[in-house]
Design a protein that fits this description.
This protein is of the alpha/beta class. Helices cover 46% and strands 14% of the residues.
Length: 301
């Protein structure tokens, strides 16, 4: 029987990655994303999941805050919609996490890296094909000023891995596949598709939600809340598209050309919601890239 619980619902996401009883899952996820950095062997969950104090608690934002043996502060969150100020919010949270370490009279030398990892079901930067985006303070030619502030995005909609090749995919790709598909998989599928014992443990946490009445109620409440939010976003987008048509805005025309180019290239056309994070200049840049790909293909033939 399928697990039936989606880890993209933030309640399930936090139980799976933010539980002191399952830190091996958290460690495996962190090492999969931060694969070029000091390896993590121990984490402490700083905001473990507590029982709700009121009915309103189920509507609060559920993120995961942890620290590792390198004294780095780590924030992990799930986002199923792209709010207008999400980039600013991510920068603000990472900055707050960083400065919160400095107490009165302390030296700047005590500051340790603050790392934020945001899993997105939609693409914030659809024009860039990379599944994992790594933002740090860099000079424009690539010289890193410091690694102390990092924002990592795992954009699930960009996943190219399938059930046929996920077993041999990179750890980050395996996690992206798990996050997108766990709800539809059985425990047998998990053992067959993933070489990682941590994936089986994560699947077990999700399965327990459906078997625990209180957790299932809170999961369903969060799922309804997220669906309502997505519905409001979709409605606002439809209204915006309609207004754009009425005003003759060029963005809608560019989107149409992009969809046609994607069809000609034989790649998956984007859904309307995947264009939500693009402004006019980003759409224009994406159109240029697709035209170049089509031109290159023609020259190659």
């Amino acid at each position: 029987m399928a697990i039936g619980i989606s880890p993209t619902v933030d309640f399930a996401f936090k139980l799976m990655l933010g539980s002191p009883q399952h830190t091996s899952v958290t460690i495996h996820f962190l090492n999969s994303i931060l694969d070029d950095q000091p390896r993590i062997t121990r984490v402490e969950i700083l905001n473990p999941f507590l029982s709700k104090d009121s009915e309103d608690d189920k509507l609060s934002v559920l993120d995961i805050l942890a620290t590792d043996e390198h004294d780095r502060l780590l924030n992990i969150e799930m986002q199923t919609s792209l709010s207008a100020a999400l980039t600013q919010r991510l920068a603000y949270y990472a900055s707050c996490l960083y400065v919160s370490q400095l107490k009165e009279g302390s030296s700047y030398a005590v500051l340790r890296p603050a790392i934020s990892i945001c899993v997105l079901t939609q693409a914030m930067f659809p024009q860039i094909p990379a599944l994992h985006l790594d933002f740090r303070l860099r000079e424009k030619k690539g010289l890193i000023l410091t690694d102390d502030l990092q924002i990592h995005l795992l954009e699930l909609s960009k996943l190219q891995v399938t059930a046929q090749n996920v077993y041999n995919a990179s750890p980050a790709e395996r996690w992206a596949f798990f996050l997108r598909n766990a709800e539809r998989l059985t425990q047998g599928d998990i053992g067959r598709l993933f070489p990682d014992k941590e994936m089986a443990e994560a699947a077990g946490v999700l399965a327990m939600i459906s078997q625990t009445p209180e957790q299932r109620l809170l999961y369903d409440a969060r799922l309804k809340f997220q669906r309502d939010e997505e519905s409001r976003m979709q409605e606002a987008m439809k209204q915006g598209i309609q207004e754009g048509r009425q005003e003759g805005r060029k963005e809608g025309v560019i989107v149409g050309r992009i969809l046609l180019l994607q069809e000609l290239l034989g790649v998956r056309p984007w859904a309307i919601d995947e264009f939500a994070g693009c402004n006019a200049s980003q759409l224009a840049e994406l159109e240029v890239q697709l035209k170049q790909q089509l031109r290159s293909r023609g020259q190659g033939e």
